[in-house]
Amino acid sequence: MSNVFEFTAGKPYPLGSTLSPQGVNFAVFSAHATRVELCLFDASGHSEIARLPLIKGEQHIWHGLVLGAKAGLLYGYRVHGPYMPELGHRFNPQKLLIDPYARSLQGEFNWSNLHCVELPESLVDSSSVRELDSASDTPKSKVIGLTPYDGIKPAISWQETVIYECHVRGATLQHPLISSVNRGKFLGLAEPVFIEHLKSLGVTTIELLPCHEFISERFLVDKGLSNYWGYNTLNFFTPHREYLVDNDVSEFQSMVKILHQHDIEVIIDVVYNHTAEGNSFGPTLCYRGLDNSNYYRLDTQNPRNYINDTGCGNTININHPRVLQLILDSLRYWVQIMGVDGFRFDLAPILGRQYSGFKTRHAFFQAINQDPILSQVKLIAEPWDIGPGGYQLGGFPIAWREWNDKYRDTMRRFWRGDSGLLPEFAQRLHGSNDLFEHNGRGPSASINFITAHDGFTLADLVTYENKHNLDNGEDNKDGHSENYSANYGQEGPCHDIDITAMRLQQQKNLLLTLLLSQGIPMVCAGSEMAHSQHGNNNAYCQDNKLNWLTFDNHHYAHPLHAFIKQLVAIRSRFLVYKKQDFLHHNDPDFALTWLSAHGEAMKAGDWTNESNQQLGYLIEPRASIKQQDALLILFNAANDTHFFHLPARDSIQSWQLLCTTTAVKELRADFTSSDTIAVAAKSCWVLSAVIQEHVDGTI
Predict the structure, then answer these.
(1) Are 400 and 380 in contact (CB under 8 A)?
(2) What pLDDT, in 10s, does the model give residues 226-262?
(3) Of the candidates 651, 647, 631, the residue with the CA atom closest to the CA atom of residue 692
(4) Counting beta carbons within 10 angstroms of the beta carbon of residue 119, is it exposed (0 to 12), middle (13 to 18) or buried (19 or more)?
(5) Which listed residue (37, 277, 382, 606) is catalytic?
(6) Over the chain, what is the mean pLDDT?
(7) What is the predicted pLDDT for the residue at 603?
(8) Does domain 7-142 have CATH number 3.40.1490.10?
(9) Given 207, 213, 251, 346, which residue is catalytic?
(10) Which residue has the higher pLDDT, 648 or 530?
(11) Ranges for the Glycosyl hydrolase family 13 catalytic domain (predicted)?
(12) What pLDDT score was predicted for residue 552?
């Protein structure tokens, strides 16, 4: 190996590889290393052509400048230091390491013992694997110089946001009208036909499952499966290469820019709670080899063991300032360089957990709150993990929104027919103020959803009472066992006309409730075409038709597609859904009345009657709101038809039917304020009325 590169001290900032007129500067953090070598590779990535010792500067930053180096240079690190797992140190210069700040990677990762520094004794003596060089099967970091994002962002308010959660690959892989080269890729999402699909639904924002470079766990590869969802991050700056057409990371930028040109925002799902290095038997690819005791949270009593609040083998140590910096730098990179509009944080309580527990004033939250870039983007928390105090729904800072699983479970149970749920159903429908109003947040703090990538699809929720996960190879033990689902007479697909009709009607009920609730609605991709995973409620490892959406020339004709479009239009029409604050009895703009089936305000006995499964939701604009109709939604979750008396109001002469969830087309569209409506079993009606202004100007 010959060193033909001119090498100088360079600078300790910025971290990562940085192009300059002089060459490429390299900087990496390690507090406990004794020596850090920059390893350069030829264009193929197969031959190591130089090892250059970095200089240890202030604050444990190792740095150096390769004069004359240009974009495209491939590199990695070899880091020397003590191998003392009992003290938390796992250094091994035989393991080539990816730059934590790498902006691009080249070369494939292949599972083997080459990457390991410790293995179960039953398999092999660990000292032998520590002597194996891992460079041949480790991706190389690649120097690039991507220019900042220069598109115009839609800047859609939270109150106008409708989220569509989707998987990059699964959303377009089977779309016949998307060019074959772009199917399953970032660019596939930016093709006109897919944008047309989003716009036809009324979607304002797509939320993409993990886009960071990720790898599959070894136990999945050994079973012939893969980590399809992508919650196993290898690098926090690099777009997942399988979603690129030509391994050009600017393709992600291009996708975002095109979507923005059509007023569609992009939120990405990010996994800053753990990495793909797993537990002590996992691969050494980056952080473990750079400074294991600082990058990860270790058991203070036995530093050989990783704290596993994620269930994935390790937990990122966000309490260390350099790890916190890494995550913040990554977030800013995706906003400023890649152009995204926000983030959904997987297992978010980990990001606010100190050794003493979850803190809303954790340095991570404080840093984002004062950051001029990150404080202006959309921030969504998955507010639970498996660590101590891991359920934090409603506990995040004021700028954050949260996935509301209480909303999900309540709505599923209500429409399934569970009794005694009316008070909580109303509270969730109205924005869950019991969860979010305590710290000054409004209804938009609640990300409402019925289904997401994790769990049953909407179609399966009304088709299966039990999970069917045998394809995952875990004896059907994985995934949630209580899904609050129902099959309405037969498990799985059937040809019974009545069962099929009820299943469609229940999907409509759930969608109507979702899109006409206070809060931010999130629709899971495939709901609009009744996509099924055949009862698999944990399809994280199924890269096949279980997850791939089936588009054909008739998908726009599916009744759920038109129904979602209709509901989004209704939501956009009524100003009450644009309110920033919760609606209470003294609201200056709107009057809210909960109605019994008698058309009168609900009484205490109506709320406490456990057999009561009927409710009216009436929103009337006050005089301060001009040219706005009243909105009335009638819910009947019972197994039989119930008659609703329309509310008598002097200011309302007639009601107009906007939509129902029943399959039977209503013969009437207009009703007087004294009419009685027969609302069929397990169905909803939505009506509107013009508010008549009196001569004196009152309503």
Answers:
(1) yes
(2) 999 999 999 999 999 999 999 999 999 999 999 999 9
(3) 651
(4) middle
(5) 382
(6) 95
(7) 96
(8) no
(9) 346
(10) 530
(11) 161-571
(12) 77
Place of tokens 């020596």: 35
Element (H, E) at 515: helix 497-515
Collect contacts of 611-616 with beta carbons under 8 A, ≥24 apart: 611/419, 612/422, 613/414, 613/417, 613/419, 613/422, 613/637, 613/638, 614/638, 614/642, 614/644, 614/679, 615/422, 615/425, 615/426, 616/644, 616/647
Both tokens assigned to 665: 């087309």
Which one-letter DSSP state was computed for residue 111?
-
Q: What is the pLDDT of residues 613-641, one digit of tens each?
A: 999 999 999 987 877 899 999 999 999 99
Architecture of the domain defined by 583-689: Sandwich (2.60)
CATH label, 159-271+452-582, candidates 3.30.465.10, 1.10.3720.10, 3.20.20.80, 3.10.20.590: 3.20.20.80
Contacts of 342 by beta carbon, 8 Å cutoff, 6+ apart: 265, 267, 268, 377, 378, 379, 380
Instruction: Report the 10 Å Cβ neighbour count for 153.
Output: 18
Owner of token pair 């944990």 = 538
CA angle 98, 104, 107 (to 5 degrees): 65
Q: Which pLDDT does position 554 carry in this prediction? A: 62
The gap from C-alpha 215 to its chain's centroid, in whole angstroms, comes to 18
Name the phi and psi angles at 343, rounded to 5: -140, 145
The H or E element that residue 511 is part of is: helix 497-515
Residue type, 250: S
Whether 346 is catalytic: yes
pLDDT band at 91 (very low <50, low <70, confident <90, very high): very high
Q: Answer whether 162's CB lies under 8 Å from 567's CB.
A: no
Structure tokens at 327: 């995550």
* Residue 382 annotated to the active site: yes
Instruction: Copy the structure tokens of residue 595.
Output: 């109605």
